[in-house]
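USER: I would love a firmer grasp of how sequence relates to backbone shape in proteins. This is the protein in question:
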Amino acid sequence: MKPIAVIRHSPTEGPGHFATFLEQHSRPWTLIRIDAGDPVPNSAEDFSGLCLMGGPMSVNDPLGWIPPLLDLIRQTMAADKPVIGHCLGGQLMSRALGGTVSKNAVKEIGWGKVQVIDSPVAREWLGEIQSFESFHWHGETFSIPDGATRILESVGCANQAFVLGKHLGMQCHVEMKREMIEAWCESGAEEIREARSTDTVQTPAAMEIDIDRRLAALSKHAELLYTKWLQGLSEA
């Protein structure tokens, strides 16, 4: 089977539990490190699917790798290969599909509940689950692309995830591991201080509360989404 291409935009925002899940299911994957200067592939031919991770930059920034990455997303979808995006990755997917990315009403940093939209599409991906606690770190939000279906929302951000056929774009971070949270709290300490603690922005100490249980629960919900996503992969 051809590997899944995992695009990393920042050294601390790797695939996390997504990689663990792929390895548990014997699915090969390859890491493309945009942050280390790896070029964006010019074709989706060598991959069975595409995964896009997060990053501190904006889709609206004038970065040279963004246009070719948007082209790769469109190429992958046109080849009927599944694409999945986490936070920045979901924003890139929305933009590639003609959507927009703009400032969210509030920043979401830390743990926060997301609600599952009561729709047939959402049920295909998450069963009968009505809500779950996810992890967040964003100040922007994507629009739902034409033809896609919104499946998750939160109090602070209406568009938390969308589905378009076999493709899944998320604003929230379901891929988290403990070391990722610790690294983000260290690198994002100033952002947290500037945002100040609110209903949607937590301190590092608050993020640490009951963290192992929270991560275990989040990984179970992530695996529901990842399992459905894997079904879209070709065996070629």
Observations:
- DSSP finds eight helices and nine strands in the chain.
- The radius of gyration is 16 Å.
- The beta strands are 4-8, 29-33, 49-52, 83-86, 101-116, 131-142, 149-153, 161-164, 167-170.
